[in-house]
Write a structure and sequence with these properties.
Elements lengths: L1 H19 L8 E2 L2 H7 L1 H9 L4 H8 L5 E7 L4 H15 L5 E6 L10 H5 L6 E6 L2 E7 L6 H8 L3
Parallel strand pairs: 2-3
Antiparallel strand pairs: 1-3, 2-4, 4-5
Helix pairs in contact: 2-3, 3-5
């Protein structure tokens, strides 16, 4: 019976790795949105398709200037390919907000060790800080929406 579990687990892990692979290219470390979009067309396409409703745009405009969003993600990860372009579209509305994009390898690490320092276990993880203090995280997918979850952290 244990052999079947081991085979099943191995097959699941292999499927997961294959499903998240992206042409063998994996960005690691700090990256900007221009580099991301030029090197990873899936992210660019999802960014072009992302839309914010008028109420969401108004909420984002009301966020405080001292808000920062640090995005830990994998170019190899389908959750990142779905959520990161949406976050970049949101942040494009407020270029005055501080943000950082950190691409992680399949082990969810980066050369500077920032992901380990932040305790990142899943991608994407959006760490939201205000005045340098963490006020919340969105891990893998938002509960309501990216805008809604951040606004809830801010109690807007």
């Amino acid at each position: 019976m244990k052999i079947y579990r081991a085979i099943g687990l191995a097959a699941f892990l292999l499927f997961t790795l294959v499903a998240c692979a992206h042409d063998g290219k994996v960005a690691v470390g700090a990256i900007n949105s221009d580099e991301l979009f030029s090197q990873y067309p899936d992210f660019s396409q999802a960014y072009q398709q992302a839309e914010l409703s008028a109420p969401e745009q108004e909420q984002v405009k009301g966020w405080p200037e001292k808000l920062k969003v640090t995005t830990y993600f994998g170019t190899w990860c389908h959750d990142s390919q779905r959520e990161v372009p949406k976050m970049l579209k949101i942040l494009a509305l407020r270029p005055d907000l501080s943000s950082e994009l950190l691409a992680l390898d399949i082990n969810k690490s980066d050369p500077e060790g920032k992901a380990a320092d932040a305790g990142i276990a899943f991608t994407p993880t959006f760490v939201v800080t205000l005045d340098g203090q963490e006020i919340g995280r969105i891990v893998e997918r938002p509960e309501t929406s990216l805008v809604g979850d951040i606004s809830a952290m801010l109690a807007i």
